């Protein structure tokens, strides 16, 4: 019930605020009907609420924890703050190569957390204000349950909706027989509040979350080993991005073992001992379990009300409708990419759909993806392998531009590439990048993919010099048959 207090604060600040105060208002009837009742106030849920409110729909937004959900409190924002602190540590440690004399004295975790929590706190306050100041949104603090195809119950009170949006998010998964104790065997939730820099960590899982934490800890001076069952790190990315990341991690002395399934973990006197396939054992102070996120849908009444599910995920059609009329689902509980901006876009889509605006269906492949480790990995569209599967190997053309030829990347001393995938005589259908700061290039890359641009069309656009965006420009020039600084 923490939210009610903060919502009341918001209401004192802004007289238009209609944040739920029902707990205190004895005169209010025990039933309330809304255009939309949303279960979960994370990225997907709150985006639905904000867009629906703009469209003059009345909304009840039910949240049992903190508005903003995983992304704001336990995901995107805190991890990126840690990654930025890690970058500062690396730049200090490596400053001499730029002629700057500085010494890294140490990492003060309390101060790192205070910086990180300051960022979260400011964004949280802003979000509370935004939601609280909308006359169309009622924020309800408490755990909800779907009790009818058109109603959610919270602490005995029923919220009826002409439409329901399920947005209950995800949780950190583990493996069978692998018990999370929150002390030596931890998830990302625990890692984000760890009060010390451990001496060594084993990271189980070489996906996005695993490599981001491995990157942070290495920069903080930790001995890190990643264990991944699949044959490569960031296995959902283009194979060339994985190879380049593995090369960069080797250079950074981040240990990793790929194609090695986890077998067991035992506690030792001062840490953990992990056994992997083949019998090899590795010891460390901590084990971070980063093997993916499961849908948070158990015991919420979804199945009882007839919502079709698959292994805990809510099944929807491309318009995000579930099998029950007027019940929609958004965010991590819908199979596909588990990313905050996908949740935002799905929330906007559902609100507009309910308002009768017939929005365009979201192309899942057109959702940009960034892994914020050092070096960053960013992509949009199809990988080379997927494109060849879909269009035939002889119809797919590739160009790989090495950042070695990009002035700004040389200044930053980063290695990497921009790889383009196109259909022969057709548009660009995949952009895959690796290198320091390439996450920022994804804005242009996603426009290229989503607007179905041809290499020649991008080639005629001017890219500022010296910038890393030039790498995108040069790659398109080359693919258009008129390379500038490279041989195509
Ligand atoms: C470590 C980490 C790093 C990440 N980094 C990134 C990143 O850099 N970029 C990115 O795009 N994505 C990132 N993600 C993923 C991103 O956080 C999720 O994709 C996003 O938060 C999903 O939004 P959602 O609305 O589906 O769920 P959530 O954000 O999980 O929100 C669901 C909300 O529902 C509430 N809820 C659940 N059950 C109930 C109930 N019964 N009653 C009331 N409320 C309920 C929960 O309290 C929660 O607030 C990261 C995730 C993690 C864990």
UniProtKB/TrEMBL annotation:
The active site is at 465 (proton acceptor). FAD binds at residues 80, 144, 332. One of its GO terms (biological process) is 2-oxoglutarate metabolic process. InterPro entries: Class-I_Pyr_Nuc-Dis_Oxidored, FAD/NAD-bd_sf, FAD/NAD-binding_dom, FAD/NAD-linked_Rdtase_dimer_sf, Lipoamide_DH, Pyr_nuc-diS_OxRdtase, Pyr_nucl-diS_OxRdtase_dimer, Pyr_OxRdtase_I_AS. Residues 34-347 form the FAD/NAD(P)-binding domain. It holds the Pfam family Pyr_redox_2. It catalyses: N(6)-[(R)-dihydrolipoyl]-L-lysyl-[protein] + NAD(+) = N(6)-[(R)-lipoyl]-L-lysyl-[protein] + NADH + H(+). It is found in: Cytoplasm. Its main location: cytoplasm. Residues 367-475 form the Pyridine nucleotide-disulphide oxidoreductase dimerisation domain. The active site is a redox-active disulfide bond. NCBIfam families: lipoamide_DH. Belongs to the class-I pyridine nucleotide-disulfide oxidoreductase family. This is Dihydrolipoyl dehydrogenase.
